[in-house]
Amino acid sequence: MSAQAEIPSSQQRPKALAVIPARLASTRLPRKMLLSETGSCLFVHTARNAERSGAFERVIVATDCDEVQAAAEEAGLAAIPTNPACPSGTDRVHEALTAAGGDYEVVVGVQGDEPELTPEDLERLVDSFNDETVSVATLAAPIEDERALNASSVVKVVLNSSSDALYFSRAAIPDRSHARADATPNLGLRHVGVYAWRPAALARFRGLKATEAERAENLEQLRWLENGGRMRVLVIDRAPHGVDTHEDYEAFVERWQSANKDVTTHTTQSQRAST
Question: What is the pTM of this model?
């Protein structure tokens, strides 16, 4: 793991927009964005964390579905309709940025199924743009075990000495089959899929064609690296638990209830009183 790049503290925070892409369609967990066993829809938890960070002038939900837009507005969140044909979350973020207007210096795309991405980590991500050389930034966390290291669903990343990404892969990187005796024993870093962009960099990215490594790994961030772009990677303490399956969601609900016992008790009592 490389040393974490220092973030200048004397500069004013860049003007930032958070976009929460929230598509209703999902192969493994249908309609997951509207799951609300906690009393709030899944994507609302993500948006609230962005608000709590204090790093954003505005937080908006970008969706291709009237139901999600209505749920966002009911929760007091701004929502922008986007084209259902958007090929990726990054394209949805760009469309939302264009529709939102404003002279934002940074736009951060936070997927709606990341309800446990902490406000502190989002704040650090935005603050990294106080370094004028940073045009794109993302997050990574230590790999916790061999199972994650060897799972193709867990994307790994290797950094240079400036904490910029050298490569992302679904394979275990760096390979340690020929490691020297003085090699560090840690398992490396796993990518956390939240991206922050300067608007000009985002526009440039969307104009690039898919590249060979991107197609081979099925990782769109490689398009940026293969075209000579730099991507700053901030190392956080742990990877948040994304929600991809019903089991993931149930585990999230259990953790949320444990952390919010008073809220859970009040909600249960209110439900009983209404029956």
Answer: 0.89
